[in-house]
Amino acid sequence: MERALNVVELTDSRREFRNTDREPLLVVVLGPTASGKTALALAIARRFQGEIVNCDSVAIYREFDVGTAKPTAAERAEIPHHLLDCVDPLADVSAGEYARQARLILREIASRKSASRKKASPTEVSPRNASPTEDLPKNASRQSEPRSNLPIVSGGTGLYLRALLDGLFAGPQRSEELRHRLRARASQHGAEYLHSILRRLDAAAADRIHANDIPKVIRAVEVCLASRRTAAQPSPPTSSRTSPRSLPRNMTELWQQGREPLQGFRVLRLGLNPERETLYARINQRAAKMFDEERHDGGLIAETERLLAKHGDQARPLTSLGYKHALQFLRGGLDRESALAAAQQAHRNYAKRQMTWFRREPDVHWLTGFGDDAEIQAKALAIIESEM
Q: Which among 38, 90, 149, 364 has the fewest CB atoms less than 10 Å away?
């Protein structure tokens, strides 16, 4: 009996060593728009002392609230959120810049230890203003020792997520002159014309980037043209072994070379995959609520009008789904009913593209349902528990 007890104790001590020696866990909640990612991320954070890092390229901007379905003030006071409401509307946040900031935040979260949650301020969006970890009581027992806070990445911007987890290529410097010319082409001939240029240069990148996402299309064209110029330059004598053919000639080839994946974390991907027709119905309902002028905040059209008056049409998020349709209404291009219908259709199309993108993500634990469903949350919590 004593020998058996010793074996059990040795096994338990080895298991404890393995658990403490492993890299910290990083949970990623992904899925299409309106699938309940925020609700699931909050449930995970409540259970596992988590902090949420936003991965939505529009929710990162200040003042854009109605069309982004951000967590409520109460939710943000309860759970620390990062990279949310922290960027000026006139600024441009590239996927690379997002990844750099998010990686710093993830490491800070994983380094923090606390046994009890101190309520966060609603403005707590980055590690610079995060509340300090509370000290443990001096008589805390071994069972109540703190563990690292759990970083949770939640959002639907696939390019941001890929940049964070897989890294980005070392792309060429921006050319404002070229960008100005490309924007002028888009204004003159339309977004589809610019997208057709990208397709000729890099068909794979054109498949990944939607024609209406003009900033990303411009960057992709810029990278392709700069890469071709580099590849066409004669090699110096000291590097004669490297032929121009071996140099990347477009964005896709650059993506495949020299990326630096996220290190130091065990990544657990949880994907929400609700039934399509039910998801589309929820998307339609959410868009209708955004356009409801009886809301206390006046709805999406009123918010868009305020933002347009304050920042002009140079505010980056005004080109995003919902806001662009409200802008069309304000400028007389659509009536209210048509603007709502266009926004609903655009969000449904976006959800379809998101699922196509996320299905390429490796090792996703797919959950068939919405993130605010208690059964789905229980399944997700069980999966995470098994990895802790």
A: 90
The sheet with strand 25-30 has its strands ordered as 81-82, 50-54, 150-154, 25-30, 266-272, 364-367
Residue with tokens 């046994």: 115
Hey, CA dihedral for 369, 24, 168, 56, is it positive or negative? positive
Residue 279 carries which side chain, given as an amino acid letter? L
Q: What is each CA distance from 288 to 247, 300, 347, 355, in whole angstroms?
A: 49, 10, 12, 23
d(CA 355, CA 359): 6
Q: What is the pLDDT along the chain (388 residues), one digit of tens a residue?
A: 444 434 434 444 333 334 446 899 999 999 999 999 999 999 999 999 999 999 999 999 999 999 999 999 999 999 999 999 999 999 989 898 999 999 999 999 999 875 445 444 433 444 333 332 233 233 333 334 456 799 999 999 999 999 999 987 666 777 888 888 999 999 899 999 999 999 999 888 899 898 888 888 998 898 888 877 654 555 444 444 444 445 566 777 766 665 789 999 999 999 999 999 999 999 999 999 999 988 888 899 999 999 999 999 889 899 999 999 999 999 999 999 999 999 999 999 999 999 999 999 999 999 999 999 999 999 999 999 999 8
**Structural domains present in the chain:** 21-133+148-168+261-274+361-387 (3.40.50.300), 176-255 (1.10.20.140), 285-353 (1.10.287)
Identify the DSSP state of 253: H
Q: 167 is written with which tokens?
A: 């890294």
Q: Cα–chain-centroid distance for residue 266? A: 18
Q: What are the tokens at 266?
A: 């065990």
Residue 189 is encoded by which pair of tokens?
Answer: 């001939």
What letter would DSSP give residue 145? -
d(CA 371, CA 29) in angstroms, rounded, equals: 9
Taking alpha carbons only, the member of 292, 346, 323, 327 closest to residue 68 is 323
| Single-letter amino acid, residue 191 | A
CA distances from 235 to 6, 254, 332 (A): 67, 19, 55
